[in-house]
Amino acid sequence: MATKCGKCGPGYPTPLEAMKGPREEIVYLPCIYRNTGTEAPDYLATVDVDPKSPHYCQVIHRLPMPNLKDELHHSGWNTCSSCFGDSTKSRNKLMLPCIMSSRIYVVDVGSEPRAPKLHKVIEAEDIHAKCGLGYLHTSHCLASGEVMISSLGDPKGNGKGGFVLLDGETFEVKGTWERPGGAAPMGYDFWYQPRHNVMISTEWAPPNVFGDGFNPADVEAGLYGSHIHVWDWQRHEIVQTLPLQDGLIPLEVRFLHNPDAAQGFVGCALSSTIQRFYKNQGGTWSVEKVIQVPPKKVKGWLLPEMPGLITDILLSLDDRFLYFSNWLHGDLRQYDISDPQRPRLTGQLFLGGSIVKGGPVQVLEDQELKSQPEPLVVKGKRVPGGPQMIQLSLDGKRLYVTTSLYSAWDKQFYPDLIREGSVMLQIDVDTIKGGLKLNPNFLVDFGKEPLGPALAHELRYPGGDCSSDIWL
């Protein structure tokens, strides 16, 4: 196998080689207590996902952070397949940026993957002073060995889409990746593709806008993101800002994994669209809508129309399937993207959501369903919330799902999620014809955690995965 070649660094030489990697045995998930009423620090949970293990579906380790109310969210590696050719590099540290406290925790998973230890705390003051940034989101490793983390705002919570650069050995804050004064007006996620000298970044909203919950008036006032930014990867500056048609709140962005590819997809949460971005012959970039999830007319909800709210998207490592979650409607979808301009729906599963039968919401008009879906019960537990963060196994055959979005929005849209905690589910994937099927024997119930119900978020495997690895 590629990782045994002796002279190589972390990860795999190509995405297709990664698909031959070992089956996942453990996963790491940040678990959040902010806004739940439990006065305890967020923690990193290690979950056993090996069906042969006596601890299958159990949290086998919890690493609490030293502070309260951080709101851990997304995590990333100190190094990944972008450093495959460098034998001095090792994927042994997990970066945990905090959305609300602006800290970064560096966790050592190398010495004992099943019992990670806290390696370093990077305090917000250091990031504020050296970068003028805060409210941190996505972490990616770079081929230089450095680590780059996107910001949602400035230290005061105004919108500012910049990037914190960390030394890959000492994890000292080096400054910003972008040129001084060159941050985007808003930030969220990013993905780079060096063969095309490009990086794409997305926008949520200023932390002062989304921080305490969602207010529809803020959308009317134009305070939420509706653009993606195209950066020159070598010059570290924005070269194009693309407005999105029907593209409110562009969140997760994914290039195709093939490093030669000059296209990818972004999921727009509020307008519930998937947009394809691509490079033109002249070297500029364009974007087009390729999937629209229609809203449902409802009674008994915040607004008369309920969007799907696409919150996470993934591409399989062979670039054949696109997956996304509709957090409010409650369904998870699989599309064949063999023709990226015309995605074809091949799988759909309802895993909870806001429109289940017997709930407070009545659907008056639905362009897709004939009746409201049944509530989801797994191993006797009625699942609160809807499908949110997703992670695919390397071979593409298993999809893991968690149900928490962001604690303040969980509290607003799914109060039962706050009371009962989130869950982790597993879906079996048909990689030949397409199709999704719930594994009825898999449930990790974070409602039963020792300190009280917790909100589990993004999933990471020790060996990397299809949303953290970038190939050069």
From TrEMBL:
It is a peripheral membrane protein. Its main location: nucleus. Its EC number is 1.8.3.4. One of its GO terms (cellular component) is nucleus. GO terms for molecular function: methanethiol oxidase activity; selenium binding. It catalyses: methanethiol + O2 + H2O = hydrogen sulfide + formaldehyde + H2O2 + H(+). It is found in: Nucleus; Cytoplasm, Cytosol; Membrane. SUPFAM superfamilies: 3-carboxy-cis,cis-mucoante lactonizing enzyme. One of its GO terms (biological process) is protein transport. Keywords: Acetylation, Cytoplasm, Membrane, Nucleus, Oxidoreductase, Protein transport, Selenium, Transport. It holds the Pfam family SBP56. Pathway: Organosulfur degradation. Signal peptide: none annotated. InterPro entries: Se-bd (IPR008826), WD40/YVTN_repeat-like_dom_sf (IPR015943). It comes from the Eukaryota. Belongs to the selenium-binding protein family. Catalyzes the oxidation of methanethiol, an organosulfur compound known to be produced in substantial amounts by gut bacteria. Selenium-binding protein which may be involved in the sensing of reactive xenobiotics in the cytoplasm. May be involved in intra-Golgi protein transport. Interacts with USP33. This is Methanethiol oxidase. The lineage of its organism: Eukaryota, Metazoa, Chordata, Craniata, Vertebrata.
